[in-house]
Amino acid sequence: MDVRLESGERRSVKVRRRSGHVVGDRVEVVGERLQRRERDTELRRRDAMGRTHVVAANLDVLGVVIAPLPPSPAGFVDRALISARAAAIAPFLVVNKADLPGAAELVADVRETWIDGPGGLELPLFIVCAAAPDEPEHARGLAELLTFFAGQRRPRRGAFIGTSGVGKSSLVNAMLPDVALPVGEINEYSGLGRHTTTTATLHELPGGGELIDTPGFRDFGLVDISEAALSEHFPGFREVVFDSGQRCRFNDCRHLSEPDCAIKAAVSDGRLAPARLQRYLELLEGL
Ligand SMILES: Nc1nc2c(ncn2[C@@H]2O[C@H](COP(=O)(O)OP(=O)(O)OP(=O)(O)O)[C@@H](O)[C@H]2O)c(=O)[nH]1
Ligand SMILES: [Zn+2]
């Protein structure tokens, strides 16, 4: 795997296949070994056998990519947002294929569902056309996305998830100039893990920030969300209710028909949109 030294120099090192390093890990050289530092965040995926793997370490942001075509399955965006928030990775949204019919409607729908209205999130939203990123009508979206990665105070490290075919690879290519080389990782030294047959890559963006691209998790199965995580991280619940110190009477309240439910109280007095509770209930049903 490749490591990036603090000096910025890159070096290839041999590690055991089962060393457990993943892309984004910070490592230190201890004698003959690379010792992993504690991770700030872990992005997990579930494989076909139902096992959970860490696919990337120390991500700051996770871009949930959708497009007019193919449509993402019902609940996908909410599940992705919840998974990111539960992992302490800040989510953002990307609507790709802005050139296709239906893009404007999708953007309106995204705003209404996640951003506007009572309980809406401060969720960065980028509207891009990865297939023609330099067309005048699409260039701004990509520029804004690159500015977001470059960060105001410090650069961000992110990755994209989304249904197969929404254009994640195209987006990565649009964000990286031709000369960009796949690089290893970080700080001191960092592990760029080889995941069985797929190689995870950490790209440095020209304007600042880093993009992790891992073929194996582009379309990864989201790990199961627990009832507790669903309630804690459902978009809007925390912002409107829990962060202002309101609690349901029962710690494990599912916000169904329990008495003294803070979520239902927020819906009845208009602080939370009823559609939010409805989407929560649909996800709860499907857990
Ligand atoms: N019209 C249009 N097509 C696009 C755009 N971006 C990507 N595509 C097309 O969408 C198809 C899928 O793009 P990919 O980048 O391979 O999608 P992906 O999300 O990486 O797909 P997986 O690797 O299967 O997860 C390709 O045919 C792209 O050319 C876009 O902005 N507009
Ligand atoms: Zn409740």
From TrEMBL:
Q: Where does Zn(2+) bind?
A: 248, 253, 255, 261
Q: Where does it live in the cell?
A: Cytoplasm
Entry cofactors: Zn(2+)
Kindly list the biological process annotations in GO that this record carries. Answer: ribosomal small subunit biogenesis
Task: Give one GO molecular function term.
Answer: GTP binding
Q: Which SUPFAM superfamilies match?
A: P-loop containing nucleoside triphosphate hydrolases (SSF52540)
Annotated GO CC locations: cytoplasm
Q: How is the cofactor bound?
A: Binds 1 zinc ion per subunit.
Tell me the keywords, alphabetical order.
Answer: Cytoplasm, GTP-binding, Hydrolase, Metal-binding, Nucleotide-binding, Ribosome biogenesis, RNA-binding, rRNA-binding, Zinc
Query: Per its UniProt entry, what is the enzyme's top EC class, as one word?
Result: hydrolase
Q: Which Pfam families match?
A: RsgA_GTPase
Q: Which residues bind GTP?
A: 96-99, 162-170
Q: What is its main location?
A: cytoplasm
Top-rank lineage group of the source organism: Bacteria
| Catalytic activity, EC | 3.6.1.-
Q: Which HAMAP family match?
A: GTPase_RsgA
Q: Which family does it belong to?
A: Belongs to the TRAFAC class YlqF/YawG GTPase family. RsgA subfamily.
Relate the protein's function as given in its record. One of several proteins that assist in the late maturation steps of the functional core of the 30S ribosomal subunit. Helps release RbfA from mature subunits. May play a role in the assembly of ribosomal proteins into the subunit. Circularly permuted GTPase that catalyzes slow GTP hydrolysis, GTPase activity is stimulated by the 30S ribosomal subunit.
Q: How does it assemble?
A: Monomer. Associates with 30S ribosomal subunit, binds 16S rRNA.
Q: What is this protein called?
A: Small ribosomal subunit biogenesis GTPase RsgA
Organism of provenance: Enhygromyxa salina
Q: Which gene encodes it?
A: rsgA_2
